UniProtKB/TrEMBL annotation:
The reaction(s) this protein catalyses: Thiol-dependent hydrolysis of ester, thioester, amide, peptide and isopeptide bonds formed by the C-terminal Gly of ubiquitin (a 76-residue protein attached to proteins as an intracellular targeting signal)
Descriptive protein name: Ubiquitin carboxyl-terminal hydrolase
Active site, renumbered: 324, 781
The organism of origin for this protein: Adineta steineri
Residues annotated for Zn(2+) binding in this entry: 188, 191, 208, 221
Domain UBA: 623-664, 690-730
One biological process term in Gene Ontology: protein deubiquitination
Amino acid sequence: MADKYKNVRVPGSNDNVYKDECLYSFDNPESEHGLYICMSTFRGVGKDHLERHCKMNPGKNVFLHILRKRKPVPVDPNVEPVKVTKLAIGVEGGFDANQSNRFTFEEQYEIYIHPNETIHYPDETNQLPELVKRSADAIIAADSAFLKEERSLMNVTWNGDIRPITKHTATLQQLNNNRQIPPNGWKCDQCDLKDNLWLNLTDGAILCGRKFFDGTGGNNHASEYYHKTKYPLAVKLGTITAKGADVYSYDEDDMVEDPNLAIHLGHWGINMLKMEKSDRSMADLEIELNQKYGEASMIEEANSKLQPVYGPGYTGMRNLGNSCYMNSVAQVLFTLDDFQEKYYKNCNFYFDKAKDPVNDFNAQTAKLAFGLLSGQYSKEISMSGDSSLQAPSGIRPQMFRSLIGRNHPDFGTKQQQDAAEFLQYYIEQVHNHCLKDSTADPSLDPSTCFQFELEERIYCPEINQVRYLTRNETMLRLGVPIEASKNMHEVLQFNKTKEDMEKEGKKTNDLPIVRPIIPLTEAISQWAAPEDIVDYILPRHGRRTTIRKTQRFITYPDYLFVQLKKYTFNPDWTPKKLDVSMEIPDEIDLNSLRATGFQHGETLMPDGDISTGQSSASTSNIHVNEVLLQQLIDMGFSTEGCKRALINTGNNDIEAAMNWVFEHQSDPDFDTPYEAPMKRARVEQVQSPPVDEESIGIIMSMGFSRNHALHALSLSNNNVEAAVDWALNTPEGSSALAALVESSPQSPPLQQTKTHYRDGTGKYRLIAFISHIGNHPSCGHYVAHIRKDGRWIIFNDEHVALSEHPPKDLAYLYLYKRETI
């Protein structure tokens, strides 16, 4: 007997026990056949993968079999339901999509020795050695690997209920000006607003808060007052209760806790114990601003009685806590033949090749494909009895999320993220693993179905010369041309009506929203139109001129992702969403935008080589903003250092230049004359500091492409603020223009496309779109709509149903399929 248990171990504190989900499938303890945890490796497998595990782990064939059932919890009618305080799912304070407070679990255990021996546990413990019993008890008692990871993620995830303690709590200055704050009847000291008011704890001033992205809120008087006085703390009137209030620290730029709030309020005659909450807290506002948005019910089709659908390709994905961005992207990608061919049809190949399945990218991607496409986890739930007591349909992609987010500053947290940014990052990961990992078919690389090549034609009217550049893209990013709105008159009338109602103190919540209606074709036309770039310095001539840039498709991808840049920032850096309704055609024809290449009669622009010995390489021939230069010099910095600061930060922002000076004044070449980039720019770029993913994500969250963000950061020496300023003032698509024209040797005009690009007609049909609810892509909620079998299907996390009214006009990302594939 002892021999068959020789490899059994007792898990220690450093062992991860995977007892929530199978390595290769989404079988779990609630599945029909439960989950089997190896008592040697502590990894769980479903019944269908027992043979595979034992084959790959010889001698390790003893398992603890867990079968879990749900039992109802009596509902106490006297207990008030927990209030939702955050627009999030699966995190504390958010929505409980699984109704976990209505049931508890009951588990049954067995010791299973593959292939055919079963011992009930603990009923038949007399048949087991002591080591096996200790191992089983330890596995049952251990925190699962998922739970450990959840705790780790929550440690780096912002939680709306946990705020830092302000540094001013013990040192806050409070003026003795004899001002006493009444318990009600407040009004802004600088305007007539009577809500969204903030009390400055230093001098007792009452001022209105920031204006929100949708036009509601205040007039920014509180923040303007801080910039004038530097008085740091303000409390929101109307949120004060005996338990606390909303306190904002302007110099810490965050909502904070003030342990001495009662004392600070008492200075102004406010007794916290007598205050009742009369205004909405910041958490309330976050919920309302997202929920009241007219698009929310439209995107989720909340007013329709949706008919659920089940079967292969109709599997929902449970929300793991702000993971809807990942769910939406995954549902769209695994609809495509390329991803199905690579990962679903070859899933057994990747399972068998994986030495460490938990940490194997291909194995976990194949597992995700199997979960979504097999139909095994998309079965109709019986309507008899309480549905919350039945095992949920859909999959819980915990292993996949953990792996794809590992070591990434954003996707490794439980915070909401930008779906477009995740899409691009995941496509890059797929491509990288296709290049380096063993594969069932080396020709299969799903990432290439999105790749296309663009041509940039640079024309200088002054010298009547051209240059052709190329760049690789995986997404077509389009601006939103508000000026092209088809109903501008109605929009202006709506805005005026709303403004008049607000002046009269009337509520505008019930006022029907009128959004600008903008055809997608207008956004495409704007992208394709010639773009003038002023104040461009000709490399050879050294003088300023205007050049004209146009961009065209060299190749058309099999699948074209279109991203609408609907998200931007207000001057005070608060998020702003362009609330528009796009006219989205089911078919688009881009054939007219095919690149023509170098044309007969054109003259190529010279390389613009400059020898290293010429003085023209110094700042003498580089224009510097003299006004800003003098301001920096007056601060005591060297002339050459100030020139360097301005050149490296876009030459138009004194604050960005100052930040650059503070970061680089200790550089050995700070006081030496600046040398313009020449052909050795490629070497210099290699020597520049590495760009971190967090900085890239900040800039991409404002709607810029990854290439644009990378170039902005490289030009500003990784100064995010300077990079953002440069990106905002440099047209998208021309980010590498100056550096390429000045530093790259002239390439012969391209006549043939590269072999690794797919190509075909420019006619496309819409097959999917991803919509976003919220004022910024890094918060709120994502939903996918996909056209399958001639009908539109909504994928809203674990809910999959027939779509009655696909909200194509409100989406963020669109996917078009080329007609010939």
